[in-house]
Design brief:
Belongs to the beta/gamma-crystallin family. Keywords: Repeat. It comes from Desmophyllum pertusum. InterPro entries: Beta/gamma_crystallin, G_crystallin-like. This protein is mainly β and about 110 residues long. Helix content is about 5%, strand content about 35%. It has a four-stranded antiparallel sheet. A hairpin with a 3-residue loop joins strand 4 and strand 5. The longest helix has 4 residues.
Length: about 110
């Protein structure tokens, strides 16, 4: 069975520069700076995507927001962030990944 493309990551704002595709079988991304020097500046989540938590620092540190399926984010500002995304992981509805403002303190 072939995995379905669900997320597109772009190096530059406005869906420009280097691109990386994630699918429904992709693992969490603890360090996007290995592929995108400054991080990811725009993201497209297809309708069939899961929610993803994105972070402004590697290893799920820094400011954090949850991105919703079926949305296009043209810039870090459109995601509610001041800086590019440097790590991301799937959002889990269990208690482990609750939304909190704690991450903002390290931004």
């Amino acid at each position: 069975m072939t995995a379905t493309l669900t997320v597109l990551l772009f190096e530059d704002e406005g869906y420009g520069g280097k691109v990386k595709e994630l699918n429904d079988e992709s693992q969490d991304q603890p360090d996007l700076t290995n592929e995108f020097t400054s991080g990811v500046s725009s993201i497209v989540l297809k309708e069939n995507a899961k929610k993803w938590q994105v972070f402004t620092r590697v290893n799920y540190q820094g400011a954090k927001v949850t991105l919703e399926p079926g949305r296009r984010y043209t810039s870090p500002d459109a995601m509610g962030l001041d800086n590019p995304v440097q790590s991301m992981k799937r959002f889990h509805e269990n208690g482990d990944d609750k939304e909190s403002d704690d991450a903002d303190e390290t931004a």
